[in-house]
Amino acid sequence: MPMIDRDTFNPRHFTKYFTKHLVLACGVVAISTFNYAFDQQGFNSTQAMDAFDREFGHYNPEKGVYELETYYLSLLNSLVYIGFAAGAWIGSLISSHYGRRMTIFCMSLWALVTATLLVTSGVSHNKWQLLVGRVLNYIYIGMELSSVPVYQSEVVPAPIRGLMVGSYQVSLGIGGLIINSICRGTSTIKNNNAWMIPYGLYYVIPSFVASTIWFIPESPRWLLMKERDDEALRNMKLFRGEGNEMAAEAELDLIRSSLREESDKGSWADLFKGHNRRRTGIVLGVAFFFQATGQVFSGHYGAVFVKSLGTVNPFNITVSQSAINTVTSFIGIIMLDRVGRRYLSLPTLLRALH
């Protein structure tokens, strides 16, 4: 059994680390994650709307309903990973050369462009424009995943790092709950507004993030990588608050030592040598079992599948799933720094083996 530190159940154990600038920084990047949920879960729900099927599908005389062609539905949910890979690569380059904030700013502007493509596809009545817009929007998703978790891990103190990095999943849950609830409300609309209204929300979060990102400090670690030590110290002091100047300097010294160690780079083959072989196996195993839970199918085709059963309202199911995901994710991050990572991963592994 894990050794549980009872002191971590005192809220003060976590709140004492939060300063004004840290709360602002974590809040802005957490809100940016909402748009990831808006895209993934918003598409999951809108695909099941009658108005969406009528606009981009074909009429099935045997069933007497409009439905999306199988190949198109597959393209709509598979080609996105091309955009995702491109976004992760582009985001990494921008993040490395121009900073975490610049990456978040650029991805937000890009999201406004792709949102326009998605919304206006209802005006052009062009399903291929919708497909292109969806793929290009995943460039935003890839850029986000290459910058937001990195920024979170670099600015928060070690004792609450698990809590804050884990909050990424909570943000996804909250964003999913918001967009699925809206889709539940618009699903009864008979015209294209049923799905265009949810897509229109894709403007909200990127606009907010793009206009606020420059009010939060840049990552001290990135500034050290660029040999901007004075700025790094100033930002670290902002994140750690007044009265913690010595601790901020000590933390920067640790980051410098870490960066010096990282400068001695090995080869890819080193991942499979010695102790690294076991570490690599663990990482790959966790990724495999996470996908083995079937969450990808549920995330992309859940609403369409439930609709095909013809027994329950698919939008009630998506809202319920989002609510459960939000609650369990919140419980997970609360327990993360109390019982450790391994024990919290056991339910996922058991579910994958079920």
Rg for CA atoms: 22 Å
Proportion of residues in extended strands: under 5%
Mean pLDDT: 85
User: Helical element count?
Assistant: 19
Low-confidence stretches: none
The CATH C-level name of the domain at 18-216 and 319-337 is Mainly Alpha
N-to-C SSE string, H for helix and E for strand: HHHHEEHHHHHHHHHHHHHHH
Largest sheet: 2 strands, antiparallel
Q: Work out the helicity level.
A: over 70%
Report the count of strand segments. 2
General shape: globular
Helix- and strand-based class? mainly alpha
Give me the side-by-side strand order of the main sheet.
1-2
CATH hierarchy: architecture of the domain at 18-216 and 319-337:
Up-down Bundle
CATH topology name of the domain at 18-216 and 319-337, in short, is: Growth Hormone, Chain: A
Instruction: Assign the CATH superfamily of the domain at 18-216 and 319-337.
Output: MFS general substrate transporter like domains
- How far apart the termini lie comes to 23 Å
Describe the structure.
The chain has 354 residues and is mainly α. Helix content is 76%, strand content 2%. It has 19 helices and two strands. The chain has helices at residues 12-15, 20-32, 34-46, 50-56, 70-78, 80-98, 100-124, 127-145, 148-155, 161-186, 193-200, 204-212, 220-225, 229-240, 245-262, 275-292, 295-309, 314-339, 341-353; strands at residues 58-60, 65-67. α7 runs antiparallel to α12 and α17 packs antiparallel against α18 (314-339). The chain is globular and about 70 Å long. The model has no long low-confidence stretch (mean pLDDT 85).
